[in-house]
Amino acid sequence: MTDEKEAGDENVVGNRGPEIGMAIFLLAIGGLVVTDSIRVGIGWADDGPRSGYFPFYVGLFLIASSGWTLLRALIGKSPLKGEFATREQLGLVFAVLVPMVAYVALIAGLGIYVASFLLIAYFMKRHGKYGWPVTAAVAAAVPIAFFLLFERWFLVLLPKGPLERALGF
Question: In this protein, which residues make up the domain named DUF1468 (predicted)?
Answer without folding.
Answer: 22-159
